[in-house]
Design brief:
By secondary structure, the chain is of the alpha/beta class. It contains 14 helices and 14 strands. The chain has two domains: 152 residues, Aspartate Aminotransferase, domain 1 (Alpha-Beta Complex), CATH 3.90.1150; 247 residues, Aspartate Aminotransferase, domain 2. Strands 2-9-8-7-6-3-4-5 form an eight-stranded mixed sheet, with helices on both faces. The protein has a four-stranded antiparallel sheet with strand order 10-11-14-13. Helix 2 packs antiparallel against helix 6, helix 3 packs across helix 11 and helix 5 packs across helix 10.
Length: 406
């Protein structure tokens, strides 16, 4: 068996490969308008401040931060995070990781035996599905509505799986401005989810890369905040947070908040993979928080992205045919389109790319056997506002042409 055959055994791996192949068709094409990636705008990166802090850290503590460090993460960064979060935390309840996906992977490897079940929202972030499948888990998605996961469907699935002897280890959710839909789980739904998982003794993995990117509406308390502060439960929710969409994905800086008895084995997995997180960057992020830069920077990126969010919702409202439904998120960087008509957006991709517009087909955001093809994801953080209007108009015209054939 060759390497390609081995890789093809992973359906999620095949999906990531297909996405790369799709994006390769668009790379370097003059005039291409891309709604495909999940990239933050480089204009939001605090380059000058980070440059100063990197120099400061290396000058002041280079002999320390350039050395091997603690696997669980730098204490100065942990203390800064504790002061930043609205959750009661101890340093041994934090694990610093090289990106959020690594944190998700360590959590998964700690809990999952081959054949165990992971429940998730459908659709959901493909990168997490890859981590789940790599651990040998069976991944099952549950449909959402405009308030998040549909709890009646989730409860029914739990009963069904338990009746046939399946072991469900955790439920994975992106409650704020979900990738790929942009949906935010309502406060009531969060409380009900926690109570259901407590009753069923199933852990919750909360993935929170977008929660700070709110442009309108009221902030909703995180699941870990609700669980710890209102239910006095430190075990039910583990939260992974990232600086990728705030300071820059190239920093590869994220952290996990969890019960200390779960942090310990997760740290053992981290040691197997990376030994320890990168020392200089940890100290730089610690200084960025402790010097008070983070709060002001988040305000600035909210102000930067809001016109893009307004533009894409306006363009979709103006140009899209009535048969198309789309989410209207109050934050984040994604919007989800869906039609009840029989349009396959995987098949339509190549045709739309010829018009110099690209997106990610919705089927790529579902685990194996749960794919849906009448949907797609749009990113609005990377194209210009002019490109948003032009690209949505082109996409709308192409969809209308397809609808007229039905």
């Amino acid at each position: 068996m060759n390497l390609k055959d081995l890789y093809s055994k992973s359906t999620a791996g095949m999906k990531t490969s297909m996405i790369r192949e799709m994006l390769a068709q668009t790379k370097g094409v003059p005039g291409m308008i891309s709604f495909a990636g999940g990239f933050p705008s480089p204009a939001t990166f605090p380059v000058n401040t980070l440059n100063e802090l990197f120099q400061e850290v290396v000058t002041e503590s280079g002999s320390d931060t350039l050395q091997y460090g603690a696997s669980e993460g730098d204490n100065e960064l942990k203390k800064a995070l504790i002061s930043w979060e609205n959750v009661s935390l101890d340093t041994d309840e934090l694990l610093i990781t090289n990106g959020a996906t690594n944190g998700i992977y360590y959590f998964t490897r700690t809990l999952i035996n081959p054949g165990d079940v992971i429940l998730c929202e459908g659709p959901t972030f493909l990168g997490s599905v890859v981590s789940f499948e790599a651990s040998g888990a069976e991944v099952i998605s549950i449909d959402m509505d405009n308030q998040g996961i549909q709890l009646d469907l989730l409860e029914d699935k739990i009963k069904e799986l338990k009746s046939i002897g399946k072991t469900i280890k955790f439920f994975y959710t992106i409650p704020d401005f979900q990738n790929p839909t942009g949906i935010t789980m309502s406060l009531e739904r969060r409380h009900d989810l926690i109570k259901l998982m407590q009753k069923e003794q199933i852990l919750i993995l909360e993935d929170d890369p977008y929660g700070e990117l709110r442009y309108s509406g009221e902030k909703v308390k995180s699941l870990i905040e609700i669980a710890r502060n209102e239910y006095n439960d430190k075990k039910i929710v583990t939260t992974v947070k990232s600086f990728s969409k705030i300071l820059g994905p190239g920093l590869r800086m994220a952290y996990v908040m969890a019960d200390k008895e779960l942090i310990k084995p997760m740290c053992s997995w981290l040691q197997k993979v990376i030994v320890n997180p990168e020392g200089v960057t940890q100290r730089v992020v610690a200084k960025y928080i402790s010097k008070g830069y983070l709060e002001e920077h988040i305000k600035s990126i909210r102000e930067f992205y809001k016109p893009y969010q307004v533009a894409i919702i306006d363009a979709l409202t103006k140009y899209m045919p009535n048969e198309i439904e789309f989410t209207k998120p109050e934050g984040g960087i994604f919007i989800w389109l869906k039609t009840k008509k029989d349009i396959n957006f995987d098949e339509l991709f190549s045709e739309i790319v010829k018009e110099k517009v690209c997106y990610i087909p919705g089927s790529k955001f579902y685990p194996e056997h749960y794919e849906q093809y009448n949907c797609l994801r749009l990113n609005f953080s990377y194209p210009t506002i002019e490109q948003i209007y032009d690209g949505i108009k082109i996409l709308s015209e192409k969809i209308q042409t397809e609808l007229s054939k039905l």
